[in-house]
Please model this.
Amino acid sequence: MFDPEPELITIVEGPTPEFRPSPHLSFQSIYEGPEDSEIAMCELRTLKGDSILKRCRDAWKEGRPVKLDYPDHLRLRQQVDVVAMRLHELEEGPLLVLWISQPVNQLTEEEQDEGEDDVGF
Model:
């Protein structure tokens, strides 16, 4: 089956986005899929907010996914699904708010570290 080409919102420079849990629980119930995921949000400053919003709306109308492409803390490229967005006009300039779907980690790093010390007989 053909996978449609995603529309990318690419962060070229700047820090890694800060993903925070979404205060809107309705997004979690609306966006369910075959894999466990959680909805988080991030805010991005942009000069082309209207253009990005139009491109993403067009992609969703065409049935194509929208992905945020960003550098992680090691500067490696990562992608996550964008499930909703909103553009706010502030005095400082446009602010793009994205709600993204990110995979739920089965074990946190802390739980993995604790498991390594256990010896079972």
User: Anything to note?
Assistant: The two ends are 48 Å apart (CA to CA). Residues 106-116 have pLDDT under 50 and may be disordered. The longest strand covers residues 77-90.
